[in-house]
Amino acid sequence: MKKISLLALTFILMLSGVTTLHAELKIGYVNSQRIMQEWEVAREAQKKLDKRSQELQTEYQDMLGRLDSMNQTFEKQKMMMSDQRRQEKEQEIMQYRQKVQQYQMQKLGPQGEIYKIQQELTQPVLEKIQKVIKDVGDENNYDYIFDSVSGNILYAAQAHDLTDKVIYKLQRTE
């Protein structure tokens, strides 16, 4: 992670040397993990998410326990069941297994309820943090602000944006 940060910093310093020959570059960083731990709003959002996640996990584990119990009971009793009763029980277990899988996808899966709740709770928090970082960068004349945890650039002064120049050059080489 530190290598990525150093590589990104080196790259930025090289670019800034091209764009600002004698200007001093002002770089800062924030620790996003510490912000999320110490800012009350972020902690409350995380608590709500953890609570709902635990509720869903508990319900899912209960369902898995019931499925396991159904399977064990069936295995113990299947030799004494008629063919019709055995098929009914197998069908019942299969339907419940599908219900458990459906629950997992709807509640815990990548597009499930817990993901949506996470988005609802964290999106406003992250937007507020990003706005404050931008404000701090603008007010204190920072060129770049990094996240010391991920190594990502969280803020860059518009003066260092070379996107238009790169697009222009690319379009001229077609």
Describe the structure.
It is a single chain. The chain is mainly alpha-helical and 174 residues long. It has one domain. It is 72% helix and 7% strand. It contains six helices and three strands, in the order αβααααββα. The protein has helices at 2-19, 32-38, 40-77, 83-108, 113-139, 163-172; strands at 27-30, 144-147, 153-156. The protein has a three-stranded mixed beta sheet with strand order 1-2-3. A hairpin with a 5-residue loop joins strand 2 (144-147) and strand 3. The longest helix has 38 residues, at 40-77. The chain is elongated. Mean pLDDT is 88; it is low at 18-22.
How do you describe this structure in short?
Helix content is 72%, strand content 7%. The chain is mainly α and 174 residues long.
Per-chain topology:
Blueprint: H1 2-19, E1 27-30, H2 32-38, H3 40-77, H4 83-108, H5 113-139, E2 144-147, E3 153-156, H6 163-172
Keywords:
6 helices, 174 residues, mainly alpha, three-stranded mixed β-sheet
